[in-house]
Design goal:
Blueprint lengths: L18 E11 L4 E12 L4 E5 L6 H8 L8 E10 L2 E2 L5 H7 L4 E4 L3 H4 L6 H10 L6 H14 L5 H4 L9 H13 L5 E5 L7 H16 L3 E5 L3 H7 L2 E6 L2 E7 H6 L4 H10 L40 E4 L2 E7 L9 H5 L8 H5 L1
Parallel strand pairs: 3-8, 3-9, 6-7, 7-8
Antiparallel strand pairs: 1-2, 1-4, 4-5, 9-10, 10-12, 11-12
Helix pairs in contact: 4-5, 4-7, 5-7
Length: 353
Amino acid sequence: MSSNANSTTTSTRSNEPLLSVDGLRTFIETEREQFPAVDGVSFSVDRGETVCIVGESGSGKSVTCESLTGIVPQPPARITDGQITFDGKRIDGASERELRSIRGDRIAHVFQNPQQALDPVYTVGDQIVEAMTIHGQRSGTSARERAISLLRKVGIPRADDRIDEYPHEFSGGMRQRVAIAIALAADPDLLVADEPTTAVDVTVQAKLIELLRDLTDDDTAILLITHDLRVVASLADSVVVMYGGTIVERGPVDTVFSTPAHPYTQALFDSYDGLSRRNDRSARGELPSDGCRFRAECPYAEPACEGGDQPDFYTLDSDADHSVSCVHFSPDGDPERVLDASTEVHSVSEVSR
């Protein structure tokens, strides 16, 4: 990224997105090669909005979100390009000291594995209080009372007693809730949550979804990584679909669910139905390095899908906010070829049940 990127600032306006990401690229280096885990990703998150990033494992969801505040391990990762604007200020290229002032305080992360996120030698209360004091929120008795309140908020029973217990004394679902409590300790403007409902049973999942929904009522924005369409249907305002390190479709949740336009998005819905149009994973080779990354698996692939960059985004006539990266939706393409072949689509309410 540009070393002087942080010198550009703009005044915060209520109609600007809280977070704006433009052309983000992050490479992962191995002993044999380097490959683009995130390749030209662009999206935005408004204040109080929930944006869900969906896609299969390895699509670049986590690396994208960890690149925002530089917590992706460098090396092996290397952020090479892109503009990241948060609350009107460019934070790409910011110093580690500047990023530390944002992490946890204004942008908080909840990681997929709470066991790794929690320190086993400190009580959960100590870890919540530390998250408050390190950002100058409060200390002493006031911090402890706030920690108990947060544990109650995330659904930990007998919070007054359990605040002095250690992570190993909590179940996996409760540890995930403790991790969320730590993330909320500094009242962040943006909560970045990586699969927060994956390792919990359906009852705990429902409570976590309700908690996250309540946060947006308080104007907290959420960037949620998930592969669970039920969670997307329950929480999302907007959906970003990733495949092979790129975004292939984005739009309002109702529109994407009712009219999945990209062949890969349709494949995700097929998977939800227990169907599949995709080739067996073991038969696939490496992803194409140019053109449409999905073309090796796409039933509608044609020569126009090859070469050059990922296809441009084209807006669907039915919704100006719904766009898809696919040559079939270009002025020279035939979108009905893809849309007419779509299997049964769903309303948000049908999927969330």
